[in-house]
Amino acid sequence: MRFLVMNGPNINLLGLREPGIYGSESYADLLQKIEAHAKAIGVETGFFQSNHEGALVDAIQAARGEYDGIVINPAAYTHTSIAILDALKAVALPAVEVHISDVREREEFRRISYAGMACEASFIGLGFDGYLRGLDFLKERLASGKKA
Ligand code: CA2
Prior knowledge:
alpha/beta, Rossmann fold, five-stranded parallel sheet, 5 strands, globular, binds ligand CA2
């Protein structure tokens, strides 16, 4: 099983600012944790991060036929991007949404998630562990052969 782990704008700056919200570990630390977990549960991962909405849409489209599922943290585009929602719906790969912080407990504008409307599960406010739980979910989901 191959899963694409996608991150949106500013996630590449993790650890540099706002440690109270996002923790003090870096984006490189995040990838390392995900890779170690993927190895432990026997799945493969690819990674993509971009600060550009269209690049994220292109990467979702390119995932078709290459990956079995998507773990996505669209960052700020979560709350604005119908293009990412449509791309996730169009490729019809099983997808899960991750947010490092608890977006339900922050500003009102963070409560809406467009991407989440195309996702089978959301892992919110669990820090980096959310990505690991997302991989676990997709692995189980595919192993059980549930149809979308
Ligand atoms: O909690 C999450 O994972 C978010 O997706 C993170 C986004 C935010 O816009 C969403 O509402 C929730 C922001 C990521 C920005 O990351 C930073 C990295 C370094 C310094 C400041 C922000």
